Amino acid sequence: MRIPLRAAADEERPTPNLFVVGAPKSGTTALASYLGQHPEIFVAGKELSYFGSDLVFGTGTGERWRLAYEPYLRWFAGQEEARYRADRSVFYLYSRRAAAEIHAFDPTSRIVAMVRNPVEQMYSQHSEMLFQGEEDLASFAEALAAEDERRQGRAVPPGCRKPFGLLYGELTRYAEQLERYLERFGTEQVCVVLYDDLRADAAATYAGVLGFLGVDGAHRPEFAVVNANKVVRSPLLRDTLRSAPPGLRRLGRLAVRNEFTRAALRRRLHDMNTRGAPRPALDPALAARVTERCEPEIRRLEALLGRDLGAWRAPLGAPTAPAAADREP
Question: H helices of 75-116, where?
């Protein structure tokens, strides 16, 4: 297990002490956006994925990517006055090692985890992986059927940078994932938020998280639409931005020498190549089969949280109109 080079207690610089750990496509982006508007909370501007040494990320050149310790802490530089400094990385919940690594770094940290109806989450995650160019099976049913092969490293799309993101069923094993954090940090340091609650009443859910953190509960952010479902206008442009050929990369460095300007240009092209689009309704027969498959995990989560999740055990109908928190949080 890769443990941080130093413990937070040994650092004189600001370190993260709040971790929004996932699950992906469960409202973490929206909640992190709302928390980042609070005067006592700083949220790092991107997913850092420093912890979770079992998560193997790739790069456009086929190498392994891992953020080093010094660049990680630089994200929190100058935030001494913030009561909480948050790292939002949505695969920390899925990781088998992240909970232990975060605890070794700072056992006093607060943890916020968000979970969503597993059928909705899997379908949304599949859509996101398609958008990112990580998934090559447009059919959700075919993508689910490919999980066993992909778990063994086969049938993974060329250039996929996070193949664990294709294991849709494994990503929704919430009970065992939450147990890892509860065992390390205890119930007083772990807050579990349901996507349903954020979607139904963002203000009340946000206030509940502020209460858990012990910060000013009167603050109200702008509850704007965050992380709506997206599709690309041009897959070719997306793939070029993701993994440009070496010759094109060299030409780009010659044409635009400043690396920050190049990064800003890539972001601009990415934004221009993106448009919002509603997800098609999930086939009811497929939804019923996946719901049945998920029922044991849902019941295990009910027992862990002490909350009735009967709505999750009912097959999904046609998606309802998106609410303020998820179009999509």
Answer: 98-105
pLDDT in tens, the chain (329 residues): 455 667 999 999 999 999 999 999 999 999 999 999 999 999 998 899 999 999 989 876 666 888 999 999 999 999 999 999 999 999 999 999 999 999 999 999 999 999 999 999 999 999 999 988 899 999 999 999 999 999 999 999 988 999 999 999 999 999 999 999 999 999 999 999 999 999 999 999 999 999 999 999 999 998 876 655 666 566 655 566 556 556 656 665 666 666 656 566 666 765 666 666 666 789 999 999 999 999 999 999 999 999 999 999 997 753 443 443 444 43
Cβ pair 173, 118 in contact under 8 A: no
Helix axis angle, 28-35 to 202-213, nearest 10°: 60
The Cα–Cα gap between 49 and 151 comes to 21
Residues 90 and 37: their CA atoms lie apart, in Å, by 19
Instruction: Provide the token pair at 115.
Output: 């979970």
Q: What 8-state DSSP symbol labels residue 76?
A: T
Which amino acid appears at position 290 of this protein? Answer: V
Backbone angles phi, psi at 12, to 5 degrees: -95, -10
Peptide bond into 23 cis (omega under 30): yes
Put residue 322 in one of left, alpha, beta given phi > 0 → left and psi -120 to 50 → alpha.
beta
The Cα–Cα gap between 181 and 166 comes to 23
Residue 135: is it exposed, middle or buried by C-beta count within 10 angstroms (0-12/13-18/19+)?
buried
User: Using CA atoms, how far apart are residues 41 and 224, in angstroms rounded to an integer?
Assistant: 18
Under DSSP, the state recorded for 75 is T
- Which has the closest alpha carbon to 122: 316, 325, 323? 316
From residue 119, how far is each of 105, 113, 228, 325 by CA, in Å?
Answer: 34, 18, 18, 18
